[in-house]
Write a structure and sequence with these properties.
By secondary structure, the chain is of the alpha+beta class. The protein has 8 helices and 8 strands, in the order αβββααββααααββαβ.
Length: about 240
């Protein structure tokens, strides 16, 4: 659906996060029951992408924070890789941050995962799953030292949760605007009197189900098209004679 393509763009803009169309659920009727939600597990690759996106934002806004961001990246990378490896080993994706559409409301509600599960491992398993087994003992971060960095993880997940909610809320606002702009009043444009009779040309509104022709274009062009309609610079209509 074109709307899903637009929503995917916003998640990339807000978080640097790639979301698949089948993970997106929405209903926009200008009612209290409207929602934009996702149903996805934030695995290692996704968490690393979001982490780098957010840290890059900080360094772009304040280059003096570059060294602090580099330190935060090292710590968060250890958390992310370790927790993902544990989730894969145990086949338990609930250990990772995730969204479940049934548990969300108007916007996404992030389930934060179980970072304590990583800290409860025996030393050997902890070092193996955090990919530190090849390091010298002086270069390794122990469970106790990683536990002291738990505030880094908590702040990251809190910011991730806020960005997810903001992206969903923005999509709700923009999709509402899209549907309002599609709701054009029908009217007669021209009338011709011809030897064989009268010919009238009418303009009718066109909803998104009538805009499927735009799916022939690439995703970027489709999202651009929807943004033009949202801004009121384009109005899809249907002509009838």
């Amino acid at each position: 659906m074109p709307e899903s393509i637009y929503i995917q763009r916003q998640f990339m803009t807000f978080l640097g996060l790639e979301v698949y169309a089948e993970e997106i659920f929405f209903r926009v009727d200008d009612r209290d029951t409207d929602y934009v939600n996702t149903d996805m597990v934030l695995d290692r690759d996704r968490l690393l992408a979001v982490m780098r996106f957010l840290l890059d934002e900080v360094t772009e806004q304040n280059p003096q924070q570059r060294e602090k961001c580099r330190h935060a990246e090292q710590i968060l990378t250890l958390w992310i890789r370790g927790l993902d490896a544990l989730a894969q080993t145990m086949n338990e994706m609930a250990l990772l941050p995730r969204t479940v559409s049934e548990f969300s409301g108007r916007v996404d509600r992030l389930l934060p995962g179980e970072p304590q599960a990583l800290l409860s491992l025996p030393d050997e398993a902890f070092l193996r799953l955090t990919a530190q087994g090849h390091l010298m003992s002086g270069e390794q971060m122990s469970r106790q030292n990683l536990e002291a960095t738990l505030p880094y993880w908590d702040r990251f997940v809190t910011l991730l949760s806020a960005r997810l909610a903001a992206a969903c809320d923005y999509c709700l606002l923009q999709l509402s605007r899209l549907y309002r702009n599609l709701n054009t009043e029908p009217r007669q444009l021209r009338c011709f009197t011809l030897p064989f009779g009268r010919l009238e040309l009418h303009m009718q509104p066109r909803d998104m189900s009538g805009c499927e022709h735009i799916l022939e274009y690439d995703d970027a062009s489709i999202a651009d098209y929807l943004e033009e309609v949202m801004a009121g610079r384009l109005t899809p209509v249907r002509m009838e004679a």
